[in-house]
C-alpha cells in the first residue's frame, strides 16, 4: 500500500519508523526540529538490553522519596511544586508491583528477543558501521544485598527465555581484570549488545534515504492538521504545511504537547540521563573487555572506540536542559569503587538528555484515541535504542496494514483512557 506518512522526530525511534515505513513502500517525510540523533539518542548508554526489567519495580518510589535530598542518588526527583509530576508519581507507584513487573515482562521480553533479531538483520543488511557487538554485559555487585537483588532479577528474566549466568567475584575478575578486589559477584546477561547510538541513528537515516525517505533537519512541527477523517498533515514553524495520510509522533517527551492539542493526555515525564566519555589510557579508564552495569549505582560502563561511556541516573526535573555537575560527577566517582584504575584525566564528552518515561513501565505505541491516523511512538524510557527498530516495524505495520500485527495492542495509548 502506498501512503504519505509524516514522521515527527529524528531520534532512534523516529528514524526507525521512517526506515521501516520506507522499506515497505510508504512515501515518508521525516521531520526533525534540530539535528538528527542529537537528543537522547546521542548520549545514551549504547546498549541493546533485551530482557531488561522495567524501572517500576516494587519499592522504587519509596527509595527515591527517601533519597530526594541526595542529588547524587541513582533516581533523583528535584523537589518542586509540579502537579503533573505528582500525578505521574502516584500512577508510577501504583504500578510498582510484582504483578506489574510480570505484565511488563510478558510484553517486553519477547520484544527484546525480536529486537536482537532485527539488529542483527539491520547491521548486516544495511552495513551499518556503529561498532555493534553482540557480547552481552555484566551486572556487577559490591554488596551481598546487591547480589541478592541481581540474582532475583536473573530468576525473573530466566522465566521468559533468557539465560543469565550468576558468577562469584573471582569469576567476574577473571572475565574483567579491571574490577576491584571487593566485588562480590554478579550476573552475566548474554542476550545483549552494545553499539555507538549516534552512528546507529545516522546510518539508519541514510538507509531510509536510500529507500526513498525525505529526511529533513531544522524542520520544527508546531501542530497536526486535523479535518474530517482525521489527520491530513502537519504544520511547520513559519506556517508552512506538509500533507500526509498519517502522522507518527516520535519526539520523546516533547510528543506530549502535540498530543494535548488533539485532546489526548499521555502519562509521560521527561527523565534526564547523563553520560561522561572517558578515553582509554593511563590517566583515563582501563580498556574494559565487555560492558558492565554497576548494580548499586545503576551506572552503565560501555566500551566504545577508544573510550568508555559511563552513563546513567534518572532525574525528574521537568523539560529543563540543565546539567547538574553533582549528578554528572557521580558517574565516575561511583565507578572508581568498581574500577580502581579509573583515572582523573579530562573526559572526551559530557552530556545530559531527556528520555520519555511512561508511568506504567511500557512504551506507548499505537493510534491516539480520538485522533484518527495519528500514531504515537514514545514512552520508551531507557530502552529507546533497544526497542527502536522493533517499534519502527510495529508502526509501519499499523500505518500500512491497519494494525494487523498484535504486538502494538498492550502498548496502545488506549490503555490510559
Map the helices and strands.
Elements: E1 4-8, H1 12-23, E2 27-32, H2 40-43, E3 47-48, H3 60-66, E4 75-77, H4 83-94, H5 98-125, E5 137-141, H6 144-158, E6 165-168, H7 169-175, E7 185-189, E8 193-194, H8 197-210, E9 214-217, E10 221-227, E11 230-236, E12 241-243, E13 246-249, H9 255-261, E14 268-279, E15 291-294, E16 299-303, E17 307-316, H10 325-335, E18 349-358, E19 364-367, E20 374-378, H11 384-401
Which fold name is given in CATH as the topology of the largest domain?
Answer: D-Amino Acid Oxidase, Chain A, domain 2
Query: What is the correct CATH architecture of the largest domain?
Result: 2-Layer Sandwich
The value of Rg in angstroms is 21 Å
Shape descriptor: globular
Count of folded domains:
2
CATH class type of the largest domain: Alpha Beta
Helix content: 25-40%
Give average pLDDT, whole number.
93
The termini sit apart by 31 Å
Uncertain runs are none
Strand portion: 25-35%
Total DSSP E strands: 20
The biggest beta sheet, please? 9 strands, mixed
Give the count of helical stretches. 11
- According to CATH, the homologous superfamily of the largest domain is D-Amino Acid Oxidase, subunit A, domain 2
| Structure classification | alpha/beta
